[in-house]
Q: What sequence folds into this?
């Protein structure tokens, strides 16, 4: 199996997938966009791979993460451009898809039947229910709403640069709440990720606005 740190680093490669999809669609990306992607990947690598083990077969499965996340961000951006006021319905579609996939997986994993006694035991456990509610409502539903709304304001390439700060926040919370030691690799990786965000922001703020294309007036039939 893949190490958690390695899987987290590979997931950050979504920051490269979105620009590649843009290029395949025919868009031209600025040097700042590529610099931001490179800095974000380097920062996540320094932050996460300090004591990583040798590559294994599990890493191949982990490589699906950036492809899936990057493609999802890219497609959501396109959907929000077409339907800019439909963030909540688009979020509902995503959440229902995740719920259906998770329920199907759980059913197959349980051999086609669900142990109701086990479910009752989990529901009656306050700690388990709190964790489930936080995961379902906080880190899934609310996160997807904000993510979908953000993709209506930013490009998917810019959004994935912000997404690359996830391991940085994880390190900060682990240090603040769990007392974990923060090494030099965390500071160096964090500095690279913040530089990626700054590069992305400067690139988007300095980009010239798109020129308005005058619309031709329809000619009246004679």
A:
């Amino acid at each position: 199996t893949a190490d958690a740190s390695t899987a987290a680093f590979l997931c950050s490669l979504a920051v490269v997938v979105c620009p590649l999809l843009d290029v395949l669609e025919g868009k031209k990306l600025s040097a700042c966009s590529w610099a931001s992607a490179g800095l974000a990947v380097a920062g996540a690598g320094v932050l996460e791979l300090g004591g990583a083990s040798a590559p294994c077969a599990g890493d191949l499965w982990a490589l699906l993460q950036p492809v899936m996340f990057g493609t999802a961000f890219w497609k959501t951006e396109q959907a929000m451009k077409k339907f800019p006021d439909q963030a909540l319905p688009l979020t509902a579609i995503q959440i229902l898809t995740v719920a259906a996939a998770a329920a199907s997986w759980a059913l197959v994993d349980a051999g086609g039947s669900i142990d109701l006694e086990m479910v009752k035991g989990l529901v009656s456990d306050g700690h388990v229910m709190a964790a489930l509610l936080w995961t379902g409502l906080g880190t899934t539903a609310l996160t997807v709403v904000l993510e979908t709304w953000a993709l209506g304001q930013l490009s998917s390439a810019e959004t994935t640069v912000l997404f690359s700060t996830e391991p940085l926040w994880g390190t900060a919370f682990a240090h603040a709440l769990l007392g974990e030691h923060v090494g030099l690799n965390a500071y160096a990786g964090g500095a690279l990720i913040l530089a990626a965000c700054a590069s992305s922001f400067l690139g988007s703020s300095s980009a010239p606005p798109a020129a308005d294309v005058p619309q031709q007036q329809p000619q009246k039939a004679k």
In short: The first helix runs from residue 4 to 11. The chain has eleven helices and no strands. Residues 209-216 have pLDDT under 50 and may be disordered. The CA atoms of residues 22 and 63 lie 20 Å apart.
